[in-house]
Amino acid sequence: MPFASTLYFATMLLFALAFRAGAAPQPITRRSSSDLSLTAQLRLADTAIERYQLLPNDSDFVFNFTGTEELPVATSQNWPALVGVGTAFSMSQLPACSMSFLHLHPRATELFALVSGHILSEMIPQAGVLDSNNKQRVIRTDLRPGQVTIYPAGSFHTQVNPDCEPANFTAAFTSDEFAVSLVAEQIFSFRDGVIARTFGQSIAGQDIERVRDAIPTDMAIRVDECLSKCGIKQ
């Protein structure tokens, strides 16, 4: 009987192993590259050589800022040739008497170069960077054509054009997908209670909704004093 029992259990074990082997997960079928965007195919390429093969036309390496781009920024999403390069680029202008909304780039440092015009720049580094009065340091620069300033990744910053003519600039980013966070809009996306406590109960109730509704949605915020000085109608 002991031998029969041993044989029985050995037989059952072999059946179990055979069943498990037959039920083992099968390799996942690879998706056809035609199902993927060109940017996705470039990200999945094993080598730089394969990326060049996916960009067979010389025109693939040219981005046209004078085209129909709604936002004049070249990223890997609208210019696949940037995949693997680790950078993005913008070429634009800040209208007369306007300020860019307060923002930050969570995944990239920005190099901002003025081509023409005049820009007043303000940037706040990370917490703990203090000035001589032991207060949060604010780095203010007065940019003229041919000058460049830097906004480290995650730093709050804005630019103001205080003159009556547009200011033309270029900007380079250390990521092909740098992203933008809009400070005022995102802060006031929190629940009212969070906002009230954050601001020491100095703003609460209907005032919070009033501020939400007053936050500009335009990329360039108009500067009233400058508009009056230049005789520009809003």
Automatic annotation (TrEMBL):
SMART domains from the UniProt entry: Cupin_1
Keyword Metal-binding (UniProt): yes
Matching Pfam families: Cupin_1 (PF00190)
Primary location: secreted
Domain Cupin type-1: 63-209
Keywords: Manganese, Metal-binding, Secreted, Signal
Secretion signal, residue range per the UniProt entry: 1-25
Domain of life: Eukaryota
GO CC, one annotated term: extracellular region
Keyword Magnesium: no
Gene3D superfamilies: Jelly Rolls
Family: Belongs to the germin family.
Record's protein name: Spherulin
Species of provenance: Aspergillus ellipticus CBS 707.79
